[in-house]
Amino acid sequence: MTEARQYTCAGVMAGKIYVCGGWAGPQPVRSVECFDPDYSRWSPMPPMLVARWGAGAGRKDCFAMACHQEQIQQSQSRAYAILDAQANLLGERELLKRSSALAQQTAADQQLRSQAAAMAVSRSLEEQQSLQKELSSIRASLYQLRSASMEVQASRMRCSKQVEELAQTASLQEMTCRQDFARLEAYLHDASVQNIGRKSAVEAKSAEASKLIKHAHDCADRRARAEDQLQQTLSERMLRDRVLVAKVNEIVNKLERSRALRHIQERSRRNQVDELLQRMYTMASAPTLLSDNPFVEDAGGVINKRLFICGGLDENRQPLNSVECFTPPGVPMQLLHVTPRAQQTSTGSWQSVSSMAERRGWPAAVSLQGLLYVCGGRDEQREPLSSVERLNHPPSIWLPLPPLSSQRAGASAAACGGRLYVCGGAFGAQMLNSVERYDPKVGTWETLAPMLKRRAYVAAAGIAGRIHVFGGSDGGQCLETAERFDPALGTWIELPNMTDRRSGAASVALLI
Question: What is the DSSP code (8-state) at residue 335?
């Protein structure tokens, strides 16, 4: 070539070899040269747009290089065979010349021999032309194979460099592995020496362990038998405890009533002034509580002329289990067995009572025969509840009762005829019209005739021996309708509509 360069890119096109770019001295070059095998000379070509080196180089393996060399050898042997064929053709031409000379001597056979010679010459010329074409194709393939061999040599050099680098890294890793292996052998030697001393102790301990395992199996059998006996005794005790709990509840109810009577008697004996003030306050008030009227049931959430607020939602819409009690002015706080939060004032005071067992949002609460009942509601996961609790006050103790037959939140409760009624409510997105009744004497719930409309967040009140329900929501809109239930007939009848639609309202029975 006209210019010394390395890491070039070479290619064969139209029987010519093109060498492009490369690294010449301190920088890459853009020049391109072309080699013509027919004239055995190099000629410059237009340069590349960008100077580059090491371009277009693909990675070849040793097997590809060997295949290229084998193809080169086959093409060379084929070229030699073609040259031998040309020499044979030349010998045949000389023979044809001699035969033509002999044909001139013999006049009789001259024409036949001349025709045969002409045919042989034409055939030899055709064969020579075909051989020349094949020789040119072989030359072109030789040029391609030579360029491929040059690429293979370049890839061999790169592979040899990579192999040397890998050999160096492998030698370093081998040295580190040998060091680690030596340390491991030393550690194993030390461990074997220590294990020889421990072997006898391990054998002795294995014998002891076998004894302990046998003893453990015996203990496990004894434990299983003891657990079976314990389960039997526990089941028997649970049955006994249930009977005892029922008896204890009856005794607690009797004790609570007797304690209430004793508290009232002690109040009348010890604090006659407070009793007179309370009577004066009751006489001075314009309305009269329906709980003192024989035609009206207990007011919802009112016990011993005190108002109880149970559960609800906080500012984060989370249900509460706290209970608060409002004591109006004139009613002494000494009768209330709670922890006060504020002193009694001229307008009354709020005090905290013992919390319920469950958190309840939108529960139904009502007082019956001096006891506070809380039914249903919604828990922390916004699921409706069916559980029921009762507050015995005093001494402010919450007791669980049999659950409702269906879960409900946003229901309303009312007392009538010494029984507790729970009406409507919501179960998820479904509004309910079912009604349940609880009899404290029997301690069970029964299902009554459903209301005429589905209602949730409804207001209910018991008056004159009947249950009245007002408003609520049917899931799509607020209602202005009202209904009344007659326990004697067991049927619901419609009442005149309210003037406004309302849901989540509250109702109370009041005699003016």
Answer: G
> What gap in Å lies between CA 456 and CA 472, rounded to an integer?
5
d(CA 370, CA 264): 13
Radius of gyration, CA atoms only, the chain: 57
| pLDDT at residue 450, rounded to an integer | 96
DSSP state of 450: P
Asked if residue 427 lies in contact with residue 287, where contact means CB atoms within 8 angstroms, the answer is no
CA 470 – CA 449 distance, rounded (Å): 17
SS3 content of the chain, % helix, strand, coil (to 5): 45, 25, 30
Alpha-carbon distance of 129 to 139, in angstroms, equals: 15
Positions of E strands within 291-363:
302-303, 306-310, 323-327, 339-340, 349-353
pLDDT digits (tens, 9 = 90+) for 187-202: 888 777 777 777 777 7
| Angstrom distance (rounded) from CA 364 to CA 462 | 14
DSSP 8-state symbol, 441: T
Q: The tokens 């939108």 sit on which residue?
A: 362
Query: How many whole angstroms separate alpha carbon 360 and alpha carbon 411?
Result: 12
| Model confidence pLDDT, tens digit, residues 435-455 | 999 999 999 999 999 999 999
159-165-168 Cα angle (round to 5)? 140
Query: In a 10 Å sphere around its CB, with 0-12 CB exposed, 13-18 middle and 19+ buried, how is residue 460 labelled?
Result: buried
How far apart, in whole angstroms, are the C-alpha atoms of residue 62 and residue 60? Answer: 7
Q: What is the DSSP letter of 419?
A: E
User: CA of 359: how far to CAs of 6, 19, 201, 382, 477, in Å?
Assistant: 86, 89, 62, 11, 28
CB–CB of 373/302 below 8 Å? no
State pLDDT tens for residues 169-190: 878 888 887 888 788 888 888 7
Instruction: Specify the pairing of strand 388-392 against strand 397-401.
Output: antiparallel
User: Which amino acid, one-letter code, is at 188?
Assistant: L
Query: Which token pair is 209?
Result: 């362990």
Measured distance CA(152)–CA(59) in Å, rounded? 8
How far is the C-alpha of 358 from the C-alpha of 338, rounded, in Å? 19
For the chain, domains (ranges, CATH) are 283-511 (2.120.10.80)
- Give me the helices (H) in 303-381, please: none
Q: What is the spatial distance between Cα 18 and Cα 45, in angstroms, rounded to a whole number?
A: 9
Alpha-carbon span 449 to 421, nearest angstrom: 12
For residue 58, what is the DSSP state? P
Four-residue CA torsion sign, 220, 221, 224, 230? negative
pTM of the full predicted structure? 0.44
Place of tokens 């009947």: 466
